[in-house]
Each structure stands twice: as structure tokens, then as C-alpha cells.
């Protein structure tokens, strides 16, 4: 039976008070697998999101995020449209094949000692237990950037600059990116990051090292290699992606654990649960709440016809709490979930750095829970309004001794 648009529930994604975990979302998911939004249709259920993430007739929609905020030309647009996230078809297959050889689980496993050492060093600089700390600045921002810089082989003396560049480049997801001053900050960060990438690429061509940049330079499939422009864009994209998502996900995880002290205590007692803890906090509190797709060819799916040009919002935050799959909303790091979450997306655009992100967060949670027995809020977090990457910009916490 064909679905009628007027019969679908409506979700206002642009309402400043909209919450992906609100009763209105749960009610909409119970009513139908589809909902209307101000920018098209939203897919709410797990099985439907999974199927459509794999459908090649849907193309990436993130490239339009800048245009939605009035930025339609310039260096930011040129770079953003050319990132691996925003290309489809044969060019995406080619890039993914070349780059994927450098993002294997073994390559990430070799970095675990560095992740642990970085986490210990940052925690050692925390104030005494019980005193307030701004967690973003003290841990969740520098920690993942250290990881991606180590993987890329960025010299230590250059790394402090990367922190500011990555944060400013992340402004492309903010509502303020249409402001000329904000756009200029992001453009300056991109230019500085690309200039540094050119220098590192030139150095690695002269003297290869056991790092990701050298691996990307050497990556070859059937005589094909990445061009200098592609290498530069890839490095900028990795710094951007390796910062914003993991930074926000760690912060959202701390908020979740502060609200569930029993789970934090359990993690401290059983550090082997860190992998499950990461997946559980991503399932329930994922920083990527939605992914947009644009219909490239007509699709007949589950009683509805999607015409070319349709915008579809795959609501991962809703799919990850689908009662028919996960059975409820309980935050339980010991639970054996029947199926994997979609916080890393799916299909050909599944997160390339998911093994890196998982390993980083597992080591961070293990070190933090071993050192501290409880987490408490020390004030109200502040949030960056936007539609894309969710997470606080400041997060005041108190860590109490184990």
C-alpha cells in the first residue's frame, strides 16, 4: 500500500529545542518508518536506514551543508566537495581503494601504546580530584588530535597549530558559517593546514617514514596513485574528521557516564568492557545523529516512491534506539547487543577511521575509569547549534578519586 505524505508524522529538525531522544521522535518511529521534515523526509527505523545506506541510487548529501548556510563558492566549498565523504561513484571507489590500505586494524593497533601514554599525560595534568575541569579543553580536544597527528607523522613542534586549525575548520558545521568573519576563520585554517600538508608530503617523498602520509604516498592499485592535490585534501580531511567527531563523542560519553554512575563504576572494575562501553555510548549518544542523502535515481522502497532530487535524512540517532532491534534505551555497557549500531554510518560511506576512533576511545575510557571513581557535572555545558555533528563546546566536570 502506497504511503501518502500527508499521513506521515512531522519532525522540525530546525527547532532549536529539537531533541533526537524526545518522545515526539519515539512516537513518530512507532507510527511509521518515515517522517516529514523541513528539508525532506527522515528515515527513523534501523532496518530501513541500513538498507538505504547501502543503496547506490542515493548519493551523499553532506556536500550541501555549506550551501544550506549560504556558502556556495570559495576554497571551503571546493575542498569540502572533493573530500572522500562527499564523492560518489567510480571516483569514490578509486579513492577508497587507495586510502583504505592505510586504515587497517593492524595499523591502528600499533598506535595503542601512544594512545595510552597520551591519555595518561593529559590526565596527570588534571586538577586534584573534586576540583572542576573543562573537559573539552583539558582532554577531549587534544587527545584525538594527538592520535591523528601521530598516525600522520606530524612532528611534535607542529602539533599545537593543528589544534586551532582543526577547531576552526569544524566551523563548517556551525550555523554561523554564513557570517563572513566566521567563514574567513575556516578558510584561513584550511589554507594553513594545506600548506603544512604540502610540506609534510614533500618531506615524506624525500624520506619515507613509518606513518600514514608515507603509506598514502606509496598506496598504489593497478598503477594508480593519489595526486598531490588528493593527498593534501585527504590530510586536511583526516585532521578535520579525526578531531570533531572523536572530541564530541568523548564529551557525550562523559555526560552519559555522569548520568549513570553505576556504569562508570562497572567500567572501572572491569576495564575489559571498554570496547562495549564505547559502542554503547555511541549507540545511545552518537555525535553523528543524522546523515543526509540525495536521491539520484528513482527508488521504490517500502511503499514509497523517492523521486530524483528528494532529500532523505537517515536519522541514525533514532535507528540506534529502534525498539524492534535493541529492545529499549537502557545504557548498559555489559549488554551483548544483537546487532551493530549505525553511529559510524554504513554502506560505501561507512567511516573510514572507525578502527582508529574505537581504539582511541577505548584507551581513553580505560585510563579515565581506572583513575577516577565518579564523574559529576560542575556546571552547564554549552552547545554549538548546528545540524550535522552533535556535541558540547564546553563541558565542566568534576572527577572524583577512585
Structure described in brief:
By secondary structure, the protein is α+β, with helices and mostly antiparallel strands.
Structure notes:
With 402 residues, this protein is an alpha+beta fold. The chain has a single domain, classed as Cytochrome p450, CATH 1.10.630. 49% of the residues lie in helices and 11% in strands. It contains 17 helices and 12 strands. The protein has helices at 23-31, 46-53, 75-82, 89-100, 105-109, 112-124, 135-140, 142-152, 159-169, 180-206, 212-218, 228-259, 261-269, 274-284, 316-319, 323-326, 354-371; strands at 34-37, 40-43, 58-60, 132-134, 291-295, 299-301, 304-306, 311-314, 372-377, 382-383, 392-394, 396-401. The strands form 4 sheets. The protein has a 5-stranded mixed β-sheet, covered by helices on one side. A 3-stranded antiparallel β-sheet has the order 4-12-9. It has a two-stranded antiparallel sheet with strand order 6-7. Helix 8 crosses helix 9 and helix 9 (159-169) crosses helix 12 (228-259). It is globular. The termini are far apart.
